[in-house]
Amino acid sequence: MTTLEQRYAEAERKLARERAAQAPKRATALSKEDIAKMFSQVPVATAEQIAEADRREDFVRRQERLTSCGIDITEEERHLVMHDRMRVTVPLAFVRKWSKAAPRAGCPVAALEEASRGILVLTGGMGTGKSLAAAWWLSQVSGKYITRVELMTAWETKRNRFKPDEEPFARLLRCDHIVLDEFGAETDAEIPVIRDAWFAFVNGRRCKRKRTLVLSNTSLKAFFARHDDTHYSRPTGDRLRMHAECHEVAGKSMRGPA
Question: Residue 219's pLDDT is what?
Answer without folding.
Answer: 92
